[in-house]
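Example is below:
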Amino acid sequence: MRVLVHDYSGHPFQAQLSRELARRGHAVTHSLCAAYVSGKGRLVAEPGESIVFEPIGAGVVIQKMQFHRRLLQELRFGLELARQVRRTRPDAALVANVPIPTLTVFAMAMLVLRVPWVLWHQDVQAVAIRSFAGNKLSRAFRFVAAGIEIGEKWCSRRAAAIVVIAASFEGVHQAWGTSHKVTVIPNWAPLDEIVPVERKNDWAVEHGLEDTRTLLYSGTLGLKHNPTLLVGLARLVMDAGQNVRLVVVNEGPAEDLLRAEAARLEVPLTLLPFQPYERLPEVLGSGDILLVLLERDAGAFSVPSKTLSYLCAGRPILGLMPAENLAAQLVNQVGGCVLPPLESALPEAAAWATSVLDDREQGDELGLAARGFAEDEFALTRSADRFERILSDVV
C-alpha cells in the first residue's frame, strides 16, 4: 500500500508511526510543513530505511501575527500538499495537525483526485479558536472563528475515517454527524528515542545547569497558554527558599513576555530555541521538574504532546491545566501535580514543587513512575496495528 502521512508540525510520534508502516512493507512518504517552527522529530531517513521524508513550505516564514498573510500562506500550503498527493499517488493519506485553510484545500483536491484520506484529529481547532475569540478578541474575529468551524466540519465529513486522540472529541463529531467514522487512538511518545538520562548530562553542562535546580518547560507556547504563570511559579518557589532557575525551550511571541516578566520578578531565566531532536532526552533530563501549561477553554480538546515526552523522560511533572484534559489525567496517574491554570493556584503548585525539590528520593520515585507508565502504555505495535487496519479499510 502506498501511503502519504502528512503531519504539519513534524512531531516525533507521527514520524515513528510512518517508520513503522514502512518497516511493515508499505511505501510511505512522510510529509511536514518545514515553515512551521516547533520541536521536530527524527525526520531524516536512516541508511537501510525505505521511508521518504518530503517537506512542504520550505523557505517560508509563517506570519503568525498577520492574519491575512498567514491565511494566504496556509492556502498555498494546501496547494503544495495537493501537488504532493498528485505526485506520490498514494492509495490513502493520513493527515494531522493541519490548519483548517490548508486542510480545506487538501480535502477539495482529494475529491478531485479520488484518493481516500484519514483525518488524525489532534485538536478541535474550531472550539479552541472560538473560545479564545469570545474572551479576548474582537467581534470580527468571531466571524473568522465561525468560518474555521464550518471548514473543519466540512473537512471531517469529507474524510473517509477519523482518528481522535481522546473520547472528549466524540461529542463534537456527534454534533457534526461524523461520529460513525471515529476511532479513538490515544497519542504516545517514542520510548526508544526519548529515554531517561542522568541529571548532570552534557547538555546541562553546556548551558550551566548541572548544579542548579531547574523548572523546565519545553515546547510550544501559543494561544492556549499563559506564559507568565511559569515565571510566577518560579518566583514563589524561590520565595520558599529554593535556588531555582526557570528554563524555557521555545520559539515564538512568548519570548519577549517571558523576558519582561522574569526581569520584573527577578527570576533567573534561561530561554533557548528549540533544540535538535537527538538532544531532547538530555534537555528533559536537565529538568528537576517538568512543566505543562494549557488554558481552561482549550482543555477538553487539546492533549499536549510534550506531556507524553515528559513521561518517557522519567521526571516529576507539574501541570497547570484543566483537570478534564487527558494529559492531566495521565499526570495524576503517575503522582504528578495538576492544578488549574490560574494565578490563584500558584501557591499550591509552588508548595508541591518545593516539596519535590527538597526530597530527592520523592523526585526519583515520581520519575520512575512516569517512565514505568510510558513503558506500559506507549506500545507502538498496538497503535500501528490500528492505523494500518484503518488505512487498509479506507483503501
